[in-house]
Specification:
The chain is mainly α. The chain has one domain. The protein has 5 helices and 2 strands, in the order E-H-H-E-H-H-H. It has a two-stranded antiparallel ribbon. The longest helix has 28 residues. The chain is globular and about 45 Å long.
Length: about 160
């Protein structure tokens, strides 16, 4: 079976480079949170999906990330993101169709860009605290939508 998606690259908006710089352990050993750029990309995609924040990439882009750099699990998450966006239409995952692959990339890039904007908004306020910002974002997203009368303490602290 032909997989055109595997040979593609996913764009990154240049105005979100600060997020990658602050959250990458190799670039910021004091406040970095993630080991790989692909992990940052996936986290931002999840955050964008959760918050239904889809944002077109406007303006210059940074070096794109080749799809083959993502793990199999991360690529499955791409599929889930597309299915979520396309209301479960399985035909939207046709990786032998250039049109479907183009739409897949657009969906993934726009939700990721939306998630990156959420992170950037927090980092711009407290750039020295990028690690704790990610922890708080994760904690907030995990708690969001839980019933008010939950008996168990699920806090991170």
């Amino acid at each position: 079976m032909i997989d055109l998606f595997e040979s593609k690259r996913l764009a990154r908006a240049q105005d979100k480079d600060e997020v990658f710089k602050r959250l990458d352990v190799k670039k910021d050993s004091r406040y970095g949170f993630f080991q790989q750029m692909t992990d940052i990309y996936i986290f931002a995609l999840a955050l964008g999906l959760k918050n239904r924040k889809r944002s077109k990439i406007i303006g210059p882009t940074s070096e794109s990330i080749h799809v083959s750099y993502f793990t199999d699990e991360q690529k499955k998450f791409f599929d889930m993101a597309v299915l979520y966006s396309e209301a479960g239409k399985l035909e939207s995952l046709d990786k032998a169709s250039e049109d479907c692959v183009s739409e897949m990339r657009k969906i993934i890039e726009e939700y990721t860009n939306g998630g990156l904007q959420i992170i950037l908004d927090h980092i711009q306020v407290h750039p020295e605290d990028a690690f704790n910002i990610v922890v708080r974002l994760i904690d907030r997203e995990l708690k969001d939508g839980l019933p008010e009368d939950i008996d168990e303490d699920i806090s991170w602290a």
